Amino acid sequence: MSANHAIFVDPAVEGRLVIREAPDPSPLPSEAVIRLAAISLNRGEVRRSQSAAAGWRPGWDFAGTVERPASDGSGPQEGARVVGMLSSGAGAQRIAAPTHALAEIPAEVTFAQAATLPVAGLTALHALMKGGFLLERAVLITGATGGVGDFALQLARLAGARVVANVRREDQEAQVRAAGAEAVVLDSQLGDPQPFGPYSLILDSVGGTTLAKVMGLLGESGMCVSFGTSGGAHVTLDVSHFYPIGGASLYGFILFNELKRVEPAGPGLARLADLVARKKLTPAISVEAPWTDVAHIAQQLTDRKYPGKAVLHITD
After folding, report:
1. How many C-alpha atoms does 82 have within 13 Å on its Cβ side?
2. Packing angle of the helix pair 122-129, 147-158 (nearest 10 deg)
3. β-pairing, 94-98 with 31-40?
4. 222 vs 215: CA distance, rounded Å
5. One-letter-per-residue 3-state SS of the chain
6. The pTM is what?
7. Cβ proximity of 163 and 128 under 8 Å
8. Which residues, in sequence order, are CB contacts of 92 under 8 Å at separation 6+?
9. Residue 110: how many other CB atoms lie within 10 Å
10. Whole-number Cα distances in Å, 272 to 103, 118, 252, 280
11. What does the pLDDT profile of the chain (316 residues) look like in tens digits?
């Protein structure tokens, strides 16, 4: 068996990310050994890699083939094509992953498509679940051109919602309309009246002044799901525009917590992969590159050089 290699943080190199030899995975009985074909990058892990200590291994999303199934008999068998996620360390040639975090990939789905699904797809799926039955209900999605936003637009449309996308620039309108938005509002237009508003559900990944504005756009018993602060971590809220709504709420969302409380990653990934196979869900892949370019692609993600997802192909 060839040596295993993985992505590590090294503060001494430009970009702080480097590929080096790593120990072979030592799986628990409930873990399968996966030979990876592709990973995708997420803003959260890239942000952490900028301050993490030397030796930390990033990597949440992955897709590949089961090289050795779990010894307890759970999960996919040898040779199965799978998608999955870890809390860290998925950026490697071979990894050990718990079977509850894996789902088999239909033949119609590529490894690159599958690799985009874990964090971005599951975040969109679980955040939308907070809104319950969405048929003909108004949903606002901020940060709509990002990986989560793109999946959320498509899934909300599939659920029958009246979907509104919030974007920063006019030239982003075509992208979000193609993903499922019925209406588009710019940052400067976040105020009354709103298309289809007030909103039953708002998904916010921006924070800052955007979150302060959208909290007042909720309808009675509506919910704003907050899962990011790309526009700022501090929010000044005029509560006189919020509490009179009646029953409106702000929900702090962390995906890894949802996967403990609601269901593990595997079932959601299976549903998402099936939607991709049936061409009802289309991952927005903006960049595909060899994993040797990880530092460069990670910096481009930080600098917002592309919308959607970046996929890195793992090579020997």
Report:
1. 30
2. 50
3. antiparallel
4. 10
5. CCCEEEEEECCCCCCCEEEEEECCCCCCCCEEEEEEEEEECCHHHHHHHCCCCCCCCCCCEEEEEEEECCCCCCCCCCCCEEEEECCCCCCECEEEEEHHHEEECCCCCCHHHHHCHHHHHHHHHHHHHCCCCCCCCEEEECCCCEHHHHHHHHHHHHCCCEEEEEECCHHHHHHHHHHCCCEEEEHHHCCCCCCCCCEEEEEECCEHHHHHHHHHHEEEEEEEEECCCCCECCCCCCHHHCHHHCCCEEEECCHHHHHHHCCCHHHHHHHHHHHHHCCCCCCCEEEEEEHHHHHHHHHHHHCCCCCEEEEEECCC
6. 0.96
7. no
8. 4, 5, 6, 7, 22, 36, 57, 59, 314
9. 17
10. 10, 9, 23, 9
11. 689 999 999 999 999 999 999 999 999 999 999 999 999 999 999 999 999 999 999 999 999 999 999 999 999 999 999 999 999 999 999 999 999 999 999 999 999 999 999 999 999 999 999 999 999 999 999 999 999 999 999 999 999 999 999 999 999 999 999 999 999 999 999 987 899 999 999 999 999 999 999 999 999 999 999 999 998 999 999 899 899 999 999 999 999 999 999 999 999 999 999 999 999 999 999 999 999 999 999 999 999 899 989 999 999 8
Residue written as tokens 């942000």? 47
If 0-12 CB within 10 Å is exposed, 13-18 middle and 19+ buried, where does residue 7 land? buried
